[in-house]
Structures are given as structure tokens and as C-alpha cells.
């Protein structure tokens, strides 16, 4: 049916049929066809100049594959985000960034998850969605801390602090308190900040990780960061 609609130069209807085929393949657990059919549907929507349904089709494929083929799901989420970014619809991609980060967290690829929250922050900045932007930056910092990468967490905080909206936010203050507590080896303060309301308003997956902070030995993390100092650098 989809092929017939294509031959009649009706890509919209062809895409709808292709999505139906993808949904049936999902019921039958034919995962390769799920991805192929949704991708084809997405291409047909692009042909119509319809970015939102094109992205939605890839998002449906990604959700279907999250548990069985997480790496494929990540690629589909990434492509879905890019379609919206290229069409200037960054705000519509917020949930896709979060969903992709969630898959990375399940795979324990915390640095990659942080990268997607930073992408969400950039998209939010374009849309003047200040609250989403600040939450995204704090989420990224928490992910770096969870992965024992204090140096990257501090770099992320310093980079994000160049943005005035973040610098004045509750999220920035929480991040600053967390980093200070890490540098001072103050486990009680880390736990206190991680359970405060600012962190409790983040995405569920980030709250779960924050509640487990600090992971590992905080003093060991301190020693690692001190080792990185250049003795000849007096600044």
C-alpha cells in the first residue's frame, strides 16, 4: 500500500502505511524491520517537508528498540533530534534529548548522557527556556560527578557559568555547593545538596543518581585532581 501511494506521488499517505507496517513488525518483534520501516516513513515525511512527523517516526522506532537494541535506539534518537534542529524546532526535541540520555544512563555511559543534557541546554538557550536550560546544565554536572570526573564537572560548571541565566540560578548555586563539598571531602554536605529541592525538581533518572552521591572515595577524587596540577604553573 505504501509503495502504491509512492507511485501516485503521495508521500504523506505512503509514510502513514509505512508506520503501520513498522507497528506490526514491532508486535511480531522483527526489530530490524521496525527500524527500517520507521526510517522509511521518516524519509517520506521529509519529502513532504514535514519535520515534526519525520522526527516522531524516528522517536517511535527508538522507543521500540530501547531495551532490545539500545545502540540503535541512541542513533535513532540522535537523528530525530537533528531533524528538528535543522528545521529550527529545537524546543520540540527536549523530550528526545532526555530519552536519549536515559538510554545512555542505562548503558552506564554517563559522559555521553551528560553530552545530551548539554545539547538540551543549547537548544533551550535558543528558545529562551531558561528553566529547562539551567536544569539541563545541573544534570550534566551531576552525571560527571557520578562518573567520578570532578575535573570535567568543574570545567562544565565554569563553561555554563559564562551564561548569565545559569550563573544567577538556583541550579548554579546547587552545582557550586556540590563542587565545593567534593573539593573539601564533605560527604554530609554532598548528600544534603543532592537531596535538596533544586535537585528533586530534575528528571527522575538524574534524581536517582544524585541520591547515590558521592560514589567512590571523595578523598581519592581530590588526590586525582591535585595530581593534575602543573607545578611550573604559578597562576
TrEMBL record:
One GO biological process term: vesicle-mediated transport
Primary residence: membrane
Gene3D superfamilies, sorted: Tetratricopeptide repeat domain
Keywords annotated in UniProt: ER-Golgi transport, Membrane, Protein transport, Transport
GO CC, one annotated term: membrane
Entry's localization field: Membrane
InterPro entries reported for this sequence: NSF_attach, TPR-like_helical_dom_sf
Mode of membrane association: Peripheral membrane protein
PANTHER family, alphabetized: GAMMA-SOLUBLE NSF ATTACHMENT PROTEIN, SOLUBLE NSF ATTACHMENT PROTEIN SNAP
Family: Belongs to the SNAP family.
Name of this chain's protein: Gamma-soluble NSF attachment protein
Amino acid at each position: 500500500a505504501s509503495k502504491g501511494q509512492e507511485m501516485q506521488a503521495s508521500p504523506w499517505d505512503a509514510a502513514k502505511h509505512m508506520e503501520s507496517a513498522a507497528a506490526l513488525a514491532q508486535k511480531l518483534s522483527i526489530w530490524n524491520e521496525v527500524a527500517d520501516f520507521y526510517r522509511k516513513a521518516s524519509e517520506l515525511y521529509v519529502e513532504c517537508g514535514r519535520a515534526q512527523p519525520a522526527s516522531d517516526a524516528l522517536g517511535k522506532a527508538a522507543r521500540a528498540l530501547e531495551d532490545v537494541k539500545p545502540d540503535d535506539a541512541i542513533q535513532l534518537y540522535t537523528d530525530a533530534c537533528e531533524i528538528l534542529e535543522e528545521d529550527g524546532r529545537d524546543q520540540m526535541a527536549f523530550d528526545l534529548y532526555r530519552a536519549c540520555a536515559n538510554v545512555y544512563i542505562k548503558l552506564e555511559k554517563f559522559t555521553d548522557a551528560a553530552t545530551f543534557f548539554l545539547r538540551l541546554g543549547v537548544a533551550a538557550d535558543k528558545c529562551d527556556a531558561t528553566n529547562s536550560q539551567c536544569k539541563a546544565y545541573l544534570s550534566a554536572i551531576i552525571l560527571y560527578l557520578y562518573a567520578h570526573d570532578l575535573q570535567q564537572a568543574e570545567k562544565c560548571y565554569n563553561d555554563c557559568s559564562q551564561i548569565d541565566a545559569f550563573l544567577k540560578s538556583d541550579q548554579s548555586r546547587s552545582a557550586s555547593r556540590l563542587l565545593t563539598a567534593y573539593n573539601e571531602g564533605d560527604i554530609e554536605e554532598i548528600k544534603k545538596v543532592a537531596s535538596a529541592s533544586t535537585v528533586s525538581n530534575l528528571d527522575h533518572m538524574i534524581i536517582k543518581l544524585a541520591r547515590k552521591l558521592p560514589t567512590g572515595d571523595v578523598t581519592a577524587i581530590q588526590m586525582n585532581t591535585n595530581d593534575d596540577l602543573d607545578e611550573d604553573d604559578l597562576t
